[in-house]
Amino acid sequence: MAPDVVRRGATIGANATIVCGVTIGEHAFVAAGAVVARDVAQHALVAGNPARFPGAGSAPAASACPRAQRRPWSAPAGSGGASAPAGDMSAA
Question: Which of 24, 42, 88, 90 is close enough to 10 for a disulfide, judged by CB 3.0 to 4.6 Å?
Fold first, then answer.
């Protein structure tokens, strides 16, 4: 059996399963419960069974860099969250 290699800074979530001989790259993140059967590139995020990039089945641009599609968080209107102006207490 080949040994597993976990590079510096990698994070492995709870109950993740790593198959023998797999290498987890530097600063990679394996989500909780993921089943990793292939090598994980450095700085990659993998999740699921089998573990893969989020959005791997969609357009190439989305799978190449999942953060590029992320929108800033904003609270629903009237909730008084991050979208309310500073000092505005009318929503409270």
Answer: 24
Q: What does the pLDDT look like over 15-63, one tens digit per residue?
A: 999 999 999 999 999 999 999 999 999 999 999 988 888 755 444 444 4
Residues with Cβ within 8 Å of 22's Cβ and at least 6 positions away in sequence, in order, are 4, 5, 36, 37, 38, 39, 40
Please tell me what DSSP assigns to residue 62: H
Question: Is there a contact between 70 and 62 (Cβ–Cβ < 8 Å)?
Answer: no
Residue with tokens 């198959």: 19
Q: Count other Cβ atoms within 10 Å, centred on residue 9.
A: 13
Contact at 8 Å (CB) between 91 and 80? Answer: yes
Contact 23, 3 (CB under 8 A): no
